[in-house]
Design goal:
This protein is α/β, with parallel strands linked by helices and about 325 residues long. It has eleven helices and 15 strands.
């Protein structure tokens, strides 16, 4: 099969199109998926530049997100059959015989969900990682409900644009930061109640004015750095801050968070895969199943800004690293 192989850590030129063996089903609960599209995420570019989570292996196929058609099933597979269209987040972290920048992938059936009928393969391939990240952040960490107000940073980004929609499904009121009027229009369409053009407005003041000085119930940081600590100032006393990035050391801001009795949660949706936590991986597949229902009911959508053919994976990485991508990017696999 054709696959994009990362030959070593480095710049985009380490991504090379190669002929490799089709992965084989080794466990009775696995399925072989003929991939039609793969999502491209910032984690892919970080792994490419820094190295994989498994440095003992010399090369790797990247790509955590995939969508395609089941072509073969293991002897004990009960949830799927040949011909089913599926989507999933699995592999792509450096282990051999995994990754979705390829024509085929093998995945355990417990980590797969049926592709929403209303989505193209490109849209479906862009959805899993960001959906799981937003769901775990807002529902599992915080248990967001219809009484809550939430500040979501980077509302037009991959995680941000689905986080807005999940929050609105729960009935929460949403403030979100964006960089320009085009992104403001997008997040309004997705249901945001208060778009904040952060280059023109100081988001802390905007949020405090919006909440009559109280602060939001939940702050969701998808940016990191100073934004994480500034978010603590925009969250109410006894509120929640969730971040998908590792906070920088800032003792004074942590003192502020402590004085306001904030609950700080760290979200890394890759933990179940890295630690082989089967129950947590099954939960992530259940998230995709429920989100599939919401896609087909018109309650959720995925914004795909751009697609590239598989052979142009390096260009997709360049696009992400240039910054300010709206929504998601996919690789199309013919």
């Amino acid at each position: 099969m054709k696959a994009i192989v990362m030959t070593c850590a480095g710049d985009v030129d380490v991504l090379t199109l190669q002929d490799v063996a089709i992965p084989s089903i080794k466990k009775s609960t696995e399925v072989l998926v003929k991939l039609k599209a793969a999502g491209v995420n910032p984690i892919d570019t970080k792994i490419r530049s820094r190295g994989t989570f498994y440095p003992e292996y010399s090369s790797a196929i990247l790509g955590c997100d995939g969508a395609g058609i089941i072509e073969a099933v293991g002897d004990e597979v009960t949830k799927f059959k040949i011909g089913d269209e599926v989507y999933f987040c699995a592999g792509g972290l450096g282990k051999p015989d995994t990754g979705n920048y390829a024509e085929y992938a093998v995945v355990d059936e417990n980590y797969v969900a049926l592709k929403p009928k209303s989505l193209s393969f490109a849209e479906a391939a862009c959805a899993p990682l960001v959906l799981i990240t937003a769901w775990e952040s807002l529902f599992d960490r915080v248990n967001l409900d219809n009484h809550d107000t939430v500040l979501i940073h980077g509302g037009a980004g991959g995680v941000g644009h689905v986080a807005i929609q999940l929050a609105k499904i729960k009935g929460a009121k949403v403030a979100t930061t964006v960089s320009n009027p085009d992104k403001e229009r997008l997040v309004r369409k997705l249901g945001a109640d208060l778009p904040i053009l952060y280059q023109q407005q100081y988001f802390i003041e905007s949020v405090l004015d919006w909440t009559k000085g109280k602060g939001v119930d939940v702050g969701f940081d998808t940016v990191g750095g100073k934004t994480f600590f500034d978010t603590c100032k925009a969250v109410k006393v006894y509120g929640d801050v969730v971040t998908i990035l590792e906070p920088d050391s800032n003792i004074d801001s942590l003192k502020l968070a402590r004085s306001r009795n904030l609950r700080i949660s760290l979200e890394l949706m890759l933990t179940p895969a890295l630690m082989n936590l089967s129950d947590a991986l099954k939960h992530q597949a259940q998230i995709l199943t429920q989100c599939g229902v919401w896609f087909d009911e018109g309650k959720l959508s995925i914004h795909v800004e751009q697609t590239f053919p598989l052979k142009e994976a390096s260009l997709a990485h360049k696009t992400i690293e240039q910054g300010s991508v709206t929504g998601k990017i996919a690789l199309i696999i013919d």
